[in-house]
Amino acid sequence: MYFISGQDPNEIGDFDVVAKDGQLHCFYLSLPSHDTIGHLASDDGINWSPLPAAIRTGDPDDFDGDQIWTMGVFQKDGHWFMLYTALSQRGLMQTTGLATSPDLIHWTKSKTNPVIKADPRWYEAVQKGNYRVDWRDPHVVVKDGVCHGFICARQNQGLLNRRGCAGYFTSKNGHHWQVKPPACTPSNCFDWECPSVFEADGRFYMVAIAGGPGRQVYRVAERIEGPYRRMADDTLLPSGNFSVRPCVWRGKLHLFHWQRGLRDWGANGGGGYAMLASPKAANVVPDGALSVESFDWSSLYRSRRKEIGARTPAAPSCGTWRWSRGLLRASRMNGPAIWLTQRDHEDFILCADLALNEKNPAKEFGLVFRADTMGDQGMYATVIPGRFSAELVKYVYNRRRGPDSLWRGRSVEQTCHVAPVADRKYRLRVIVFGPSIEFNINGRLVLARMNLPRRNGRAGLFIEDGEAVFSDISIQPLSAPKCNWEF
Questions:
Q1: What confidence tens digit (pLDDT) does each residue in 230-257 have?
Q2: 3-24 per-residue burial string, b: 16 or more CB within 10 A, e: under 16
Q3: How far apart are CA 418 and CA 22, in angstroms?
């Protein structure tokens, strides 16, 4: 995760990530000016360091003289290539520029720019009035010596609000490109933003933002050029997470994305902030569907994992809690049962297995963190099977006037649909790292949010309205973030 330490906390936008000699390199568009493609590097996928900017906008009359937007970086025959979105005609015309580099540090723009434009045979390509030509966010996959490019475009026919598609083009050398018919035509959105493709388990997957920032989705195909089809559940990440880009790193496929949330920490809290989020691991289930989970955080482990058992100092605040043969049994007929550690924790992974009671199952359950001594204030990563939902819930008092003032202290920070588990057994895992919170259920990431009402606090478990049994409970301390998150 990484914040840009500029004047505007939203300076990081869409990006691409590549691996070179075991190190990750991230290239990102700079908001709000869109005049620079920035460059970051990382050894662990979490902590990033800035490097010199890759390229900048051209002169006022150049094809990229207005702004430069999202890019796609790839390697071909030992050379590095960058296709990037170029804006001209007061931002109403989008074309594709090319820059090359021998080392990912020093970049030179092509003398033949722009190298790709929308082809009117298949795409909206003519700018008229205040109508913008969309041809942006390129991503390139090199397979069998051929460069396959995908881009946010619009079909030249069909319902005006549903023409968003993934444009498609190919090249044998990275310099000269041939535009082809769309690879994906979902016909359900105005824009099909940041389409990115990767191969997994013999299939090809395309991830994209469907018509706005709230829907990060995916499609699957048997061939790289498509057609790409929709699965029954096409959601990839919960809302507030944007622009997924794939990268094979350390022999494994990782998905990177950026995240936006409200800053609710520090003396000058408030306002929106953007962050380069932690990478995610992609998994393919037997029917070809795609799911993601939090990646391997072991490089950030600060000390050994701490098992929680009957001898762990604890302070249950409500409900009935009882240890028996290594199992922690919880019950409460009406309202919450909350179990908390006696000490505060910050930057950690909290895990627990839970089995619902067959006759009187808890109607809601999950993990607690950054809580006060009673759990009256804190964060709750919760599962509600009856509503097919997981929620990140924040309980706080009025920041200025305290608990004696009129204040509704419960807010749902994020929600995601979750199918109930047939055997009523759940493996819960929450990663709490600086402002970043990730909640996994049975190996699937369901919540990913930037939120920090307090830096540390008690950690624990809870249920509501029923009974459940917890087991295999542990806390894994993490090293503190080093990513410009404190301003």
A1: 999 999 998 888 899 999 998 899 999 9
A2: bbeeeebbbbbbbbbbeeeeeb
A3: 35
152-162 tens-digit pLDDT: 999 999 999 99
CA distances (Å), origin 330, targets 18, 334, 357, 439: 47, 13, 10, 21
SS (H, E, C) the chain: CECCCCCCCCCEEEEEEEEECCEEEEEEEECCCCCEEEEEEECCCCCEEEEEEEEECCCCCCCCCCEEEEEEEEEECCEEEEEEEEEECCCCEEEEEEEEECCCCCCEECCCCCCECCCCCCECCCCECCECECCEEEEEEEECCEEEEEEEEEECCCCHHHCEEEEEEEECCCCCCEEEEEEECCCCCCCEEEEEEEEECCEEEEEEEECCCCCEEEEEECCCCCCCECCCCCEEECCCEEEEEEEEECCEEEEEEEEEEECCCCCCCCCEEEEECCCEEEEECCCCCEEEEECCCHHHECCCCEEECCCCCECCCECEEEEECCEEEEEEEEEEEEEEECCCECCEEEEEEEEECCCCECCEEEEEEEECCCCCCEEEEEEEHHHCEEEEEEECCECCCECCCCCCCEEEEEEEECCCCCCCEEEEEEEEECCEEEEEECCEEEEEEECCCCCCEEEEEEEEEEEEEEEEEEEEEECCCCCCCCC
Q: Which two tokens stand for residue 277?
A: 């989020």
**Structural domains of the chain ordered from first start:** 12-296 (2.115.10.20), 302-477 (2.60.120.560)
Q: Please, are residues 341 and 458 in contact by the beta-carbon 8 Å criterion?
A: yes
- Tell me how far apart the alpha carbons of residues 485 and 293 are, in angstroms, rounded to a whole number: 23
Report, in angstroms and rounded to the nearest whole number, the Rg of the chain calculated over CA atoms.
Answer: 24
Measured in degrees and rounded to the nearest 5, phi and psi for residue 400 equal: -95, -35
Q: Could you read off the pLDDT of 116-166 as tens digits, one per residue?
A: 999 999 999 998 888 889 999 999 999 999 999 999 999 999 999 999 999
